[in-house]
Amino acid sequence: MKTFTLSPLKLMSLFIVIFSGSLQAKNYTIDHLEPLSWWNKMQSNKLQLMIHGQDISALTPKITHPDITIVNVNKVTNGNYLFLDLQLADTIKAGEYEIAFYRKNIKILSHNYLINDRNKNSAAATSFNGKDVIYLLTPDRFANGDVSNDNNKVLKEQSNRTKKGGRHGGDIQGIINNLSYLKEMGFTQIWPNPMIENNQANYSYHGYSATDFYKIDARFGSNELFKTLSKQAQLQGLGLIKDVVLNHIGDQHWWLKDLPTNDWLNFQDKTYTGTHHKRESLHDPHATEKDKTLFSDGWFVPSMPDLNQRNKYLSTYLIQNTLWWIEYANLSGIRVDTYSYPDKDFLTDWTKRITDEYPNINIVGEEWTTNPAHVAYWQRGKKTHDNYVSYLPSVMDFPLQASLINGLKNQDSWSTGLIQLYQAIANDFQYADPYNLVTFADNHDMSRIYTQLDEDFALYKMVMSYLLTTRGIPQVFYGTEILMSNAGTEDHGVIRTDFPGGWLGDTSNAFTGKGLTAKQLTAQQYMKKLLNWRKTSKAIHQGKLTHFAPNNGIYVYFRTFETETVMIVMNKNKEDTLINTNDYQSLINDNIFATDVMTNESFSLNQPILLEKQSVKIWQLNKNVE
Predict the structure, then answer these.
(1) What is the reported pTM?
(2) CA atoms of 507 and 205, how far apart (whole Å)
(3) Is beta strand 554-561 parallel, antiparallel or unpaired with respect to 564-571?
(4) Residue 116, strand partner residues
(5) Residue 459's beta-bridge partner residues?
(6) How far from the centroid of its chain's Cα atoms is residue 402's Cα?
(7) Per-residue exposure over 202-234, b if at least 16 CB sit within 10 Å of its own CB, e if not
(8) Partner residues linked to 189 by β-bridges
(9) Virtual CA dihedral for 419, 422, 424, 429, nearest 10 degrees?
(10) What integer pLDDT is reported at residue 528 of this predicted model?
(11) Can you tell me whether residue 547 is helix, strand or coil?
(12) 26 pLDDT exceeds 90?
């Protein structure tokens, strides 16, 4: 029998092959590496990658290119995660850069990381402001432009248009197909409810239960199609605002299957603990720490785990995710859901990092309270009672929304009726910048404005006219222009009902007007006329607001900018009412003529004017008849 003797060199080679094979057999993987990509020429050259995969922390990452330096390799309690701190050189060019993963000097895995050229014409450079009107829509309920994506075998909930709280099939393509309608109506910004993946078994259409922060839900389309929406919208003169959730995720998020740390979530190791929603506890000098903690750390509902932004890796992840979407899709702004619920110090860091990177971007936070002191607390520039510093430019004006409804519906007295609307504006001294508040009559979480007004068409016209002429940035909920309502129910599935004409076979079509009632068509044309006039008025965009205290059911206010003056008169009375324009001479000045912006009729201001009952008039003032 022959025997074989291997040289030491061959023995070593054989050992390496066997050893390498055994390492490969351990099944090391990279299941997630986020952010998915990045950009050169950002304000900050720092980047932290979250790398998730089987036993990934047992490997050593290396980048050999001189333009990317690994500063720190951070390991956490879960060995399936690495957090990689990178420093990008100022000179780094667009391209793919290899991240290699080694075990005992043997390359086990490799990932090519993409660096892009930064967008030179960022939409965030201008962002949304007082010249804009925002159209809020629920994508699943607006228009179904691609029936092929209604269902997806990988995603848990399937389409069921007969179910009020189910998926109905609206998508990104549906929005793209109807951009021309939004432009012609006179809207200038679109705010869709979140469209990132919500792979929940039930009630997932609304978008507020994220299961993947970097992926558009396949039932809406794809990341690329979302980017296309932004591009196509810009071609129509429309900006795209992204709805961001920093407070919570869905309980089917991939993190829940393999949490990075033992403090990634609030109350992570305990039974469900819900928030008490008492935001007053954040400001109450008599509040207990328990109440403050429970407000911020408690979960919304059992299916929405509450994120612990005090975890430094999660904090960085959320900041970078927002930056990624702004740059990726060339967004014109951000809306933040449940703004006051995350950790306060994190909110300071988040807003500062976003506004450092995009100094002109507008970000609006949702703080649902009718107390203006609590809303004002979060706006940038506010001198707060506890010296808290915020960099949030804008806040949703919930106090004005409530006062607008109460002011028009309540009987006038010394403390109710129009005086409530007047008082809401008089409280503007509490805000650092009241002109940058986002105003609205309703939204996706409350009854529609036509329902709130008991379907009173005269009051509807007064509310919408006021909304589009007062200070701030108005937001209009989809379907408001055609009097969509939810009479008899507070069910959100009904409030967010399908926009008529968005589905093949709909008996009525709001995009064309077919099948709408005469009143719906009148409302739509009224809004269209008002919105398109508003585009032309610098006084409305950036003019000073001056108002007179309501008197005998009449409320008068002015918007003035340079030589342009707009006078708005609201007559709440149920009978025609005569007004004497001499009472407002300090604002009328030498403008002796007015033109009604809705009828184009011109008339003299040198005589008393009879106002129709329950009406609002918007007059452009001038020295001569035009």
Answers:
(1) 0.95
(2) 23
(3) antiparallel
(4) 39
(5) none
(6) 21
(7) ebbbbbbbbbbbbebbbbbbebebbbbbbebbb
(8) 134, 239
(9) -130
(10) 98
(11) strand
(12) no
**Is 306 in the active site?**
no
Bridge partners (DSSP) listed for residue 560 = 544, 565
251 CB burial (10 A radius; 0-12, 13-18, 19+): middle
Look-up: residue for tokens 């248009």?
161
Higher pLDDT residue, 121 or 616?
Answer: 616
Token couple for 407: 């002011």
Structure tokens, 393: 């430019």
CA distance 440 to 464: 9
Strand pairing class (106-116; 38-39): parallel
Query: Quick check: 355 and 325 in contact, CB under 8 A?
Result: no
Question: Tokens representing 398?
Answer: 């919930």
Whole-number Å distance between alpha carbons of 367 and 376: 9
Q: Is the pLDDT of residue 43 over 80?
A: yes
- Contacts by 278-287 with C-beta closer than 8 Å and gap 24+? 279/340, 279/367, 279/369, 279/374, 280/371, 280/374, 282/340, 282/344, 282/374, 283/373, 283/374, 283/377, 283/385, 283/386
Q: Per residue in 141-194, pLDDT tens? A: 999 999 999 999 999 999 999 999 999 999 999 999 999 999 999 999 999 999
Measured in degrees and rounded to the nearest 5, phi and psi for residue 334 equal: -135, 140
Under the banding of pLDDT at 50, 70 and 90, the label for residue 625 is low
Give CA–CA dist 443/127, Å, rounded.
21
Residue 547 has which token pair? 């108002």
Give whole-number Cα distances, 366 to 45, 213, 244, 273, 438, in Å.
Answer: 30, 20, 11, 23, 10
Tokens of 220: 């809406």
How many alpha carbons lie under 13 Å from residue 612 in its C-beta half-sphere?
A: 9
The owner of tokens 């291997």 is 6
The one catalytic residue in 140, 146, 212, 337 is 337
The vertex-387 CA angle with 385 and 393, nearest 5°, equals 95
* Alpha-carbon span 576 to 553, nearest angstrom: 11
Burial class of 496 by CB neighbour count within 10 A (0 to 12, 13 to 18, 19+): buried
Residue type, 117: D
Is residue 337 annotated as part of the catalytic site, yes or no? Answer: yes
Distances (CA, A) of 199 to 203, 243, 300, 315, 576: 10, 17, 18, 23, 56
CA distance 81 to 345: 25
DSSP 159-200: B-TTSTTSB----HHHHHHTHHHHHHHT--EEEEPP-EE---
How far apart CA 499 and CA 261 sit, in angstroms, is: 43
Band (pLDDT 50/70/90 cuts) for residue 120 is: confident
Q: Which residue in the list 243, 366, 428, 498 is annotated as catalytic?
A: 366
As to burial, measured by CB atoms within 10 angstroms (0-12 exposed, 13-18 middle, 19+ buried), residue 245 is: buried
